[in-house]
Design brief:
It is built from 10 helices and 7 strands. It is α/β, with parallel strands linked by helices. It has a single domain, classed as Rossmann fold (3-Layer(aba) Sandwich). Bound molecules: S-adenosylmethionine. S-adenosylmethionine binds next to strand 2 and helix 6.
Length: 236
């Protein structure tokens, strides 16, 4: 099966519909990733179909949870753009900030953005604990996204200060990590509530994926996040 067909069939299985133009853009992004990955290590997944399923289709699972009232989104530790770049391509009406502390990854994302002419993507080469200090960033996003960065109690401290009150945070997780229990104190301190966990299956390998849906209920105390490195070293 040709790669584009493999992607389109996967989209059908997970029940997401996209225009031909958006599919073209996503395939171009996949091509750029495979090409760049030959000389710059951006992802450990080398097999083309695995890359489509485990990065692109996995990121697409979030698409069903995107609402019309969401106008801005932050992806912390986006790496080579998952899930943020995939969702930015699918949702041109939402402004995305794609953040990663590793320069070679953000350089790649800038190339993808420029190549595809995306006007709704801002790429930031920073750590979350530093970027939050920038004017106008605190309490300013409708949606937070995070996949594969750290445990829930750590990423909550990175993300929640960026969210508006009533903003949503979707954490993408492998099956049953049980991190919710460990994150009880972080959720309380950061006035964030778990609304539920959506359980999905990847279309071909059938691996289970969880998306933990959370909502920020109150303004965040300015002492969070603590200084760079502390959220990871001493989680809330
Ligand atoms: C395992 S990768 C996951 C990348 C991508 N989200 C994915 O799922 O393919 C984790 C990324 O988070 C970034 N990262 C970790 N802590 C961070 C922080 N405090 N601020 C910004 N980026 C961070 C790392 O540089 C790394 O690229």
């Amino acid at each position: 099966m040709e790669l584009r067909e493999y992607f389109v069939e996967g989209l059908n299985i997970i029940g997401v519909e996209l225009t031909e133009e958006i599919i073209d853009r996503l395939m171009k992004y996949a091509e750029l990733l495979m090409e760049t990955n030959k000389h710059t290590n951006l992802t450990a997944i080398r097999d083309e179909k695995d890359l489509i399923e485990k990065h692109f289709l996995d990121s697409m699972l979030v698409q069903k949870l995107i609402r019309e009232d969401m106008t801005s989104a932050m992806d912390i530790g986006t790496g080579a753009g998952f899930p943020g770049m995939v969702l930015a391509i699918c949702n041109p009406q939402i402004r995305f900030t794609l953040m990663d502390s590793v320069g070679k990854k953000t350089k790649f994302l800038e190339m993808v953005r420029d190549d595809l002419g995306l006007t709704n993507v801002e790429v930031v080469n920073e750590r979350a604990e530093e970027y939050i200090k920038k004017d106008g960033r605190r309490e300013s996003y409708d949606l937070g996204l995070c996949r594969g960065v750290s445990k829930l109690n750590v990423i909550l401290e990175y993300m929640v200060p960026f969210l508006k009150v009533d903003g949503d945070f979707y954490a993408l997780k492998m099956e049953g990590t049980g991190e919710e229990l460990e994150a009880e104190n972080a959720l309380k301190v950061l006035s964030t509530e778990i609304l539920g966990t959506e359980v999905f299956h990847l279309p071909y390998c059938k691996d289970v994926r969880h998306i933990i849906r959370m909502k920020k209920r109150e303004k965040t105390d300015s002492k969070y996040p603590r200084r760079t490195g502390i959220p990871l070293k001493r989680p809330l």
